[in-house]
Design goal:
266 residues, Rossmann fold, 2 domains, ten-stranded mixed β-sheet, 8 helices, 23% strand, globular
Length: 266
């Protein structure tokens, strides 16, 4: 994991996400790119002056964040910054496509935490439009060591080495226990390939034969095992798509009490 992209608006929830990026960068000796974007809307001829102030304020905030973050880096991890004018999602997509990042780490906004990921937010748009893993950190979730990770899958999941590689790298770097939560309504068992690709990660398997509310079941599992991170795979038609129900109402939308690592279909 050589390059990690961290969008920031310099808020507390963005700094929470940055703490996770620093932890991972220190483990891998990675380079973190701290990205801030801004947009200027021309009103009453004030475009130039407003843009100048926005750039100046962003530069000051970025410098302060860089100084604080650089003091925390270890193992040859490095930090760079970008301040770019334009749409946040478009810029993240462009950087992810052309700069070969291995992971995007970003905070979610609002008291509802990860519910925001699936209600048309910036994080939701990024997850839907990039093809690299995304780690979404709830707004009020303070960093803590990653000791236990839940991987939630179902009987229809297919796997590959490249798809699971980020999860394997993170688990190994943190010496974390991986608990595989398997929704197995048909009682067909788990695809044996997952065991092959998880390699030397310490892991256990847990089977949920049926449940009326997958969201509640996964969250209860997270609490029961005091998990520090949830991991799921995003496909066009998959367990993730079923759980998130992109078209349902806000009250029914999926949420997680811990940071959520989204792996993309390879």
């Amino acid at each position: 994991m050589k390059k990690i992209l961290v969008p920031t608006d310099f808020s507390d929830h963005a700094n929470n996400a940055l703490a996770y990026a620093v932890n991972l960068a220190n483990a891998f000796g990675s380079t973190i790119t701290l990205l801030h974007t801004y947009q200027v809307y021309n009103k009453a001829g004030s475009f130039i002056s407003v843009e100048s102030f926005m750039k100046e304020d962003a530069a000051k905030a970025m410098l302060e964040t860089m100084k604080k973050t650089e003091a925390l880096l270890k193992n040859n991890a490095q930090l760079e910054s970008k301040i770019i004018k334009g749409d946040t999602v478009d810029i993240i997509m462009d950087l992810a496509q052309h700069h070969l990042y291995d992971l995007i780490v970003m905070g979610t906004q609002g008291a509802s935490g990860l519910e925001e990921v699936f209600i048309g937010s910036t994080a939701n748009s990024v997850i839907k439009n990039v093809y690299i893993p995304v780690l979404a950190v709830p707004a009020d979730f303070a960093f803590r060591p990653i000791q236990t990770i839940v991987l939630a899958v179902d009987e229809e999941e297919d796997f590959s080495d490249s798809m699971l590689s980020s999860l394997v790298q993170i688990a190994e770097s943190q010496a974390a226990m991986l608990r595989v939560y398997h929704k197995d309504v048909a009682n067909d068992g788990l695809n044996a390939a997952v065991d092959k690709y998880l390699k030397d990660v310490e892991r256990t398997y847990h089977y949920e034969l049926d449940t009326d509310n997958i969201n509640e079941s996964i969250n209860a599992f997270i609490v029961e095992y005091n998990a520090d991170m949830l991991c799921m795979i995003r496909r066009r038609r998959s367990f993730l798509a079923e759980v998130f129900h992109e078209s349902i109402t806000t009250k029914e939308v999926f949420n997680s009490p811990v940071p959520l690592l989204i792996l993309q279909e390879s």
